[in-house]
Recover the amino acids of this structure.
């Protein structure tokens, strides 16, 4: 059975940046685009959310930090990995991105191999995390059922 391609949401207000990232990723992933923060939040909150978001910091209106804060505060979108892709290369900016919940930080101009590798790594880590949460949930349910069974047996 062939695994479905992951969806990457590219959020940037500059067409050239979108074109570069789309070109780097389109062979391996489905790429969706939002050109502003409001649209990014709408797309991330949709019935078919992206598997990962590449988010520019400097955008008119709502900047990437604000978008990240909103997405991470919503349980529906909080687990979507966000990678900042920005020209801001100061260490304080990078730390701020991580503090807000981003999983990675890539500076522009991007290196295609770096983008592909980091996207792939974070998608794989997110898949493994989901798998572990599912296993933990199953184990918890089985333990709860066993406790309930033992309580019933004790009363009998």
């Amino acid at each position: 059975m062939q695994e479905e391609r992951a969806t990457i949401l590219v959020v940037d207000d500059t067409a050239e940046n979108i074109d570069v990232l789309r070109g780097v990723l389109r062979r391996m992933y489905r790429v969706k685009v939002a050109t502003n923060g409001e649209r990014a939040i709408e797309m991330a909150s949709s019935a078919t959310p992206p598997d990962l978001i590449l988010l520019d910091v400097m955008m008119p209106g709502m900047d990437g930090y604000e978008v990240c804060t909103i997405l991470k505060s919503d349980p529906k979108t909080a687990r979507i990995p966000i990678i900042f892709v920005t020209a801001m290369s100061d260490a304080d900016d990078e730390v701020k991105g991580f503090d807000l919940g981003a999983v990675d930080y890539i500076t522009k101009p991007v290196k295609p191999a770096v983008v592909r590798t980091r996207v792939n790594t974070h998608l794989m880590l997110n898949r493994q995390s989901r798998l572990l949460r599912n296993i933990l949930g199953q184990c918890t349910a089985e333990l709860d059922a066993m406790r309930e069974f033992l309580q019933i047996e004790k009363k009998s």
About this structure: The longest strand covers residues 7-11. The chain has one domain: 7-130. The helical segments are 15-25, 37-44, 64-73, 91-99, 112-155.
